[in-house]
Amino acid sequence: MQDTIKSPPPSEATVMKKATAVSVAVTTVIYLLCGCLGYAAFGADAPDNLLTGFGFYEPFWLLDVANAAVVAHLVGTYQVMSQPVFAYVERRAAAAWPGSALVRERPIRLGPLGAFAASPIRLAWRTTYVCVTTAVAMLLPFFGSVVGLIGAVSFWPLTVYFPVEMYIAQQGVARWSTRWVLLQSLSVGCFVVSVSAAAGSIAGVVDAFKAQSPFCWSC
C-alpha cells in the first residue's frame, strides 16, 4: 500500500521501510532473547510468562506495564482479525434482509464528538461478538499456547510465503535461478518452523486441557 501512495519526499514508502526494518529487528531480538535464553536456562520447564511464571508478582508496577503492553499489542491484532468476520456477517445479513430496519444505517450523534452511521444488527452483532470472545478468552487458562498456535499458523503464509511470492512476481525472478532457489529455500525453512511451532502449541493446549477444566463453572 505504501508503494502506491504518491506524495512529496520523503515518501511514505521510504519512511515505512525504515520503520518496518527497525521494528522487525527489535521484535526479532526480543523474541530470540525470551525464547532461546529461556529455553537454554530452564529447558521445557520455561514458563509462558517469564514475569509471573516463577511465582513472583513484585514489583507490581512492572507487571502492570507488561500487561498494558500485551493489551496494546493484541488490541490491534484483534481488530484486524475481527473485521473480515464483521464484514462477512453484515454482508450476508444485508443480502438476506434488504431494506430491513435491522440493516438500515442511521446517523448517531455523540455531542461534540460528531456523528457516525450504525445499524441495529451491526451494533448488536459486534457487541455480542466482543463479549463472547472476551468471555472465552478469560476462561482459557493457557494463554501462551493459544497465542503460540495463532502465531505459528499465521507466520508462514502472511510473513513469508505471500511476501516472497509477491517479490518474485514483482521483480521477475527467473525460476530455478540462484535468487529463486534461495527465496524458496527460505520459504520452505520457515514453513517447517511454523509447522513445528504449531505442533508444539497444540501439544501444550492438549496438556493444559488434561490439567484444567476451563469451561467448568462449578469447579
UniProtKB/TrEMBL annotation:
Q: What is this protein called?
A: Amino acid transporter transmembrane domain-containing protein
Residue ranges spanning the membrane: these are: 21-40, 60-81, 129-156, 186-206
From the UniProt record, list the coiled-coil ranges.
none
Entry keyword annotation includes Cytoplasm: no
Organism ancestry = Eukaryota, Viridiplantae, Streptophyta, Embryophyta, Tracheophyta
Do the record's keywords include Cell membrane? no
Give the PANTHER family listed for this entry: OS05G0424000 PROTEIN-RELATED (PTHR48017)
The UniProt keywords, alphabetically, are: Amino-acid transport, Membrane, Transmembrane, Transmembrane helix, Transport
Give all residue intervals belonging to the Amino acid transporter transmembrane domain: 1-206
Gene Ontology biological-process entries: amino acid transport
Pfam families on file: Aa_trans
